[in-house]
What does this fold into?
Amino acid sequence: MATLQAATMSTGAIVSDPQAVRQLCENYRFGTLNWEVTEEGELTIWVHDDFEVYEARENGLPDYEGGIVTHEFLRELADHLGADEELDIQTAGFTKCRFPVLAKRYVVRDGEVLHTDLSSLEPIDE
It folds into this structure.
């Protein structure tokens, strides 16, 4: 069985209410994902895996059967970013030498969540 090898990293972003963001992060499960909100209110996210967020079961484990709720988490998080702050989360990875490679990016800013990956193509102008 092939194993995904990926890494996820984010920029740091100052949040308006560090305690509310800590509580928000604790209400979700991130698998092996790490997150930190410093005393100054800077949120960062990192992991040697794909960026996927799950709801928590009553026993505190991720609810894998409930599916991935990454977009819902990020929309809630968008309400807590400070003015003019941007959280940029990028993931890159691969499974052996198989196609396709994993590459995706989430940007949270100005109350919205933007997402991109390698699935769309645009023509190159001359």
